[in-house]
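User: Hey, quick favor. My workstation is busy. Could you predict this chain's structure for me?
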Amino acid sequence: MPEPYDPQQAIAPSGAGGGMDLAMSEAETLEKTPGGPLGTGPAGKPRSLWSDAWHQLRRNPVFLVSSLLILFLVLISIWPQLIASGDPNECHLADRQLGSSPGHPFGFDNQGCDVYTRVVYGARASITVGVCATIGAALLGSLLGGLAGFFGGWWDALLSRIADIFFGIPVILGGLVLLQVVVSTTVWPVVGFIVLLGWPQVSRIARGSVITAKQNDYVQAARALGASNGRMLLRHVAPNAVAPVIVVATIALGTYIALEATLSFLGVGLRPPTVSWGIDIANAAQSIRNAPHMLLWPAGALSITVLAFIMLGDAVRDALDPKLR
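Assistant: No problem, here it is.
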């Protein structure tokens, strides 16, 4: 006798039920998984650019090492007393150019100052200049470049010509000319000079990124719906154009620290009694044969700091640019 008719078998042929159960099982497993495949978050939902970038950065050992090193440098620049209890400007000529000794692991400089204490306190001026100059150049360049890329026309042409003028100024020569007439022991003249010559690079990056972002469909849809220029720029264009600016600014921070040390070495950057790695390198260069330790430690600290910020910038660039994955 023929078997009775089963509606479930008619709906799901042989083997389909097992496949459907397997698919449902995989979906349930994905929902229970904290993170899905590349570009997806919990429950398989697509991640945003920033969450996806953070997901990549947490798995990048270069980012972790550079971040820990930069965090340490920031901490000692804010509270140098954590690892150095002496006064960087306390000197004793009797200890002039002496090498390492108990309590003074880096030895003494030409004036009898403790090199270790000066290296620790020198991080404050260098990182302050780098951070402040980067923030100033990024904000000014992003504002001018973003407006030029969004509105175009005569404003874009004018900004491009002004940027070309600044690009034609040699950085070192400009520093020798401009900072020579400024008599100050603070970091702000150096910060202002770096911002003055650093914003054109950021403005070009911001301009190109805004031009690319404003051509996307969601911006055109917002324009068709009657959104104002300010709303489109702040809500739709800027959030999707800021990633290249962040990458350039992160890498430039290390470059600005090296530039400050170069200007201080030449005598037109930071000036005593400010403690700076560039000043100590300039003082140690005269006695490199007799006391190489005076040059080794501040130069090593400067190199490690610049390398840490460049490594951080490379990691951020790799995370924010999907083409490099």
